[in-house]
């Protein structure tokens, strides 16, 4: 299972506020099956099958265009571990357990 951080930035908008575009992208994620996601102040973390995530990222990239943006910059960071099962929660739990030990 892959974990992907995605940041979609609409450019060429009439307003400096981007929350309506973020809300549009989050709606795409709400409707998508087969993934888990977590909204953060600077992007979104998505967990699932890599092919599914790539398809979702394309939808996220297109969403601001559908809402009037004239340019969109999308960045993705992929963590694809194949030697053992990984998840967002597992990664956080691993760090927290080390903090408790130390």
From TrEMBL:
Question: Which InterPro entries does the annotation name?
Answer: MTH1187/YkoF-like (IPR029756), Thiamine_BP (IPR002767), UPF0045_domain (IPR051614)
Q: Where are the transmembrane segments?
A: none
Provide the residue span(s) of the region labelled Disordered. 81-102
Residue intervals of the Thiamine-binding protein domain: 4-96
Task: Cite the SUPFAM superfamilies for this sequence.
Answer: MTH1187/YkoF-like
Any one GO CC term of the record: cytosol
Domain of life of the organism in this record? Bacteria
Tell me any Pfam family this protein matches: Thiamine_BP
NCBIfam families the UniProt entry points to: MTH1187 family thiamine-binding protein
Family, as annotated:
Belongs to the UPF0045 family.
List the PANTHER family hit by this protein, alphabetically: UPF0045 PROTEIN ECM15
Q: What is this protein called?
A: Thiamine-binding protein domain-containing protein
- The record lists the organism as Acetohalobium arabaticum (strain ATCC 49924 / DSM 5501 / Z-7288)
């Amino acid at each position: 299972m892959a974990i992907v951080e995605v940041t979609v930035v609409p450019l060429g908008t009439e307003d400096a506020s981007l929350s309506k575009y973020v809300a549009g992208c989050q709606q795409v994620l709400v409707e998508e099956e087969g993934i888990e996601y977590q909204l953060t102040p600077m992007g979104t973390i998505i967990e699932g099958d890599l092919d599914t995530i790539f398809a979702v990222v394309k939808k996220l990239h297109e969403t601001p265009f559908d809402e009037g943006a004239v340019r969109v910059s999308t960045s993705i960071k992929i963590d694809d571990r194949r030697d053992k099962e990984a998840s967002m929660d597992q990664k956080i739990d691993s760090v927290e357990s080390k903090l408790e030990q130390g």
